């Protein structure tokens, strides 16, 4: 059985009664580290992570899904973890994003909205000899390779 698939089933089972929570990523690393990243529309607390960890850990042991020693880590994605789902984009409306495009270009702007397959940002565009203008850009998700929230300490 695929470990990541079984873990996903177990996590979905545990968070089924919490519709504001969602899975960001599940990864079984070759070094025996199983990482489950969860998030919520309003964030996620340590208590929810602990509950998921206990549920998943108990069932993995009972079913003997992983035959070697492993380390289970359940947490929320860090601020430096790229956005990957529409729900993560939605919870970050109003924040500044750094976006890497498939063509190699890098863009930066404030996320103002999104649709099913695009994001909408306000970005400053400066042409030589002119004052910078703020324009609204619609970017298809399929053209994005990575998006990260930019943190400003100003």
TrEMBL record:
Keyword line: Cytoplasm, Ribosome biogenesis
Domain Ribosome maturation factor RimP C-terminal: 83-153
Localization in the cell: Cytoplasm
UniProt cross-references to Pfam families, sorted A to Z: DUF150_C (PF17384), RimP_N (PF02576)
Every Ribosome maturation factor RimP N-terminal domain range: 14-80
Keyword Cytoplasm on entry: yes
Domain of life where this protein originates: Bacteria
Record's function text: Required for maturation of 30S ribosomal subunits.
UniProt xrefs under HAMAP family: RimP (MF_01077)
Family: Belongs to the RimP family.
Protein name: Ribosome maturation factor RimP
Organism of derivation: Mucilaginibacter angelicae
Highest classification ranks of the organism: Bacteria, Pseudomonadati, Bacteroidota, Sphingobacteriia, Sphingobacteriales
